[in-house]
Amino acid sequence: MFNGSCALTLSTSFLIQLLWTANVLAGLIFKIVGLTKYNITLDSKHRSRDVSHPDTSDLSYWYMSPGNPENEVPLVFIQGIGIGLIQYIHFIVALTRISRPLMVIEVPYVSNRLFQTDCLTPDETYPAIERALKAHGHTKATFMGHSLGTMLCAAVCRASSAASQNSIVAGLILIDPICFLTHHSIARNFAYRTPSTASQLVMDLFASREIGTSWYIMRRFCWNQSVMFPIAWARRDQEPLICQGPLSPVLPENTRVYLSENDNLLDMSKVAEYLKTQVGLETSEKMGEGKELLVMEGLDHAQYLLQPRWFSTILQAARDC
Fold first, then answer.
1. Which of these, 85, 305, 70, lies nearest to 176 by C-alpha position?
2. Which CATH number covers residue 42?
């Protein structure tokens, strides 16, 4: 018993050190490719609740702007749950090669950090991102989110519908989104499911059971702050249902949604059907045709990062939207 406990403690300590080292390495790589880290602090009127340490930063992000960019509208990338930005390192480096300003938002409370940090609600995240964009002279951006990051993209869309002339949303790219039909199965599959496949086991060990992520999902994840029932740009004159209200923003004209066919968190066939029939997104049977909704055949959650064809297709969307 004693030896087993010691071994577990040593293994956990080694893993924590390894993750810390990996994210320090990621920060060094970001600096090498031209990204600079910034922090934003919200004033009390933008917070819906008191925080323990009001003098600390609320939002950390990396930013770069190439000289004479081909596209002056910045791309804002928001990560998902996992081991931090290190899991997206090759994707983020590839995004820096696109000739447009890039902002990468950190989400530390779901990134396997050593110390638990308080978190902004999705609705509090919007003014923080808006302030960050204005600090660099931008009034609009294309928002790209993966997994949990799509929840924060949805919060931006709800607060700044593309139908408004003052919207900060110029384009939207959602990968493995959890912001559609969130109330169906996401909480059960992520937090309570007993793993039965290899991919579910990896999700359980490195995401669901990590103490900071588990705390966030159990204590701060509210589906009604994460979901949206959007209206496609082609249907922008359509009125939302009374019960939907601000949960039903108009999506921008440049919208791309990528669904993993075998996603183990949500039934993407239901999501695809909903987006086609209820939202009105246009679909494509061929990869990379530029339509609004594409299903990534045979892929599980986050596997686009390891699949060169879809990796390249999403990078092209990052250029075009």
1. 305
2. 3.40.50.1820
